[in-house]
From TrEMBL:
Origin species: Kitasatospora cineracea
Name of this chain's protein: Uncharacterized protein YbjQ (UPF0145 family)
InterPro entries registered for this protein in UniProt: UPF0145_dom_sf, UPF0145_YbjQ-like
Pfam family, one: YbjQ_1
Protein family according to the UniProt entry: Belongs to the UPF0145 family.
Length: 276
């Protein structure tokens, strides 16, 4: 499947017509963006021009998971479903950006919303502002990542400006997910712990293991992009509709690469107002 073919990726015809009307770079054309005024001005100051609001969506049915509910374990079917649905939304958003000829997407928001179509159905939405650089990256290199895709970043406009001015560039948002079942305590353990200060080690190990799996998967994506590191990492837990003993841990951040060897930015200067 062609990564940049919006139709093959499932982008609807109405979206294609909307993108065609934007015509970035042509006299009289407009752009759309969900950046705040400050973010917009800082992204322009960093040398990037917003060219259009892009989005991707996937309404996903999560399958049935079989397992031994008396033990701690990853629910791999659910992990794969939660990752695949987000990946579909992100890929469609990237396909819209590629249609506009964008170098990247900034201010990306990736969310999950429950829908009333069924208990196991949710919508995954990715939305951000496609941008085009005024100039090539230092050394005449491309701003796109090593897969030829527009870079993605969930950094704010202010953080994006700081990153570029400090000599770094985003490569892409990397993510890892793990849905984990935490086994119920045995009745003997419940009674033996009554009235005591005591660590519940099976619970600790389950949550610890799940977070580590999510983080390791996010790091593996960054390594595949040839990143130097990941900034702005968020590690969140979601129960969705699975009850108290099943939790999703989701790690996400922006993989970055250096643009130059020194990473110094101008020191802030004090401004003394003479008004009043």
């Amino acid at each position: 499947m062609n990564t940049f073919d919006p139709t093959a990726q499932g982008v609807p015809a109405d979206a294609m017509r909307r993108l065609a009307e934007l015509q970035p770079g042509k006299p009289g054309s407009i752009f759309t963006s969900d950046l705040s005024v400050n973010e917009f001005l800082l992204v322009r100051e960093a040398g990037f021009r917003p060219i259009g609001l892009v989005l991707g969506s996937s309404i996903y049915h999560v399958g049935i998971q079989l397992g031994r509910w008396g033990k701690n374990q990853e629910l791999e079917t659910l992990s794969q479903a939660m990752y695949h649905a987000r990946e579909l939304a992100m890929t469609r958003m990237e396909a819209e950006a590629a249609t506009l000829g964008a170098d990247g997407i900034v201010g990306v928001r990736l969310s999950v919303e429950a829908r009333d179509f069924g208990a196991d159905i949710a919508e995954f939405i990715a939305i951000g502002t496609a941008v085009k650089a005024d100039h090539p990256a230092p050394g005449g290199t491309d701003w796109r990542n090593n897969k030829g895709q527009p870079f993605t970043s969930d950094l704010s406009g202010q953080d994006f400006w700081t990153l570029i001015r400090a000599g770094y560039a985003p490569l892409g948002m990397t993510m890892g997910t793990c849905v984990y079942h935490i086994a119920h305590q045995k009745m003997s353990s419940v009674f033996s712990n009554l009235g005591k200060n005591v660590e519940i080690e099976p619970f600790t190990q389950a949550l610890y293991d799940a977070r580590e799996l999510a983080m390791a998967r996010m790091q593996a994506e960054a390594e595949a992009l040839g990143a130097e590191g990941i900034v702005g990492v968020q590690l969140n837990a979601h129960n969705h509709r699975w009850g108290g003993h099943t939790t999703e841990f989701f790690a996400i951040g922006t993989a970055v690469r250096p643009l130059r060897e020194d990473h110094e930015i101008e020191r802030p200067t004090m401004v003394l107002s003479l008004d009043g």
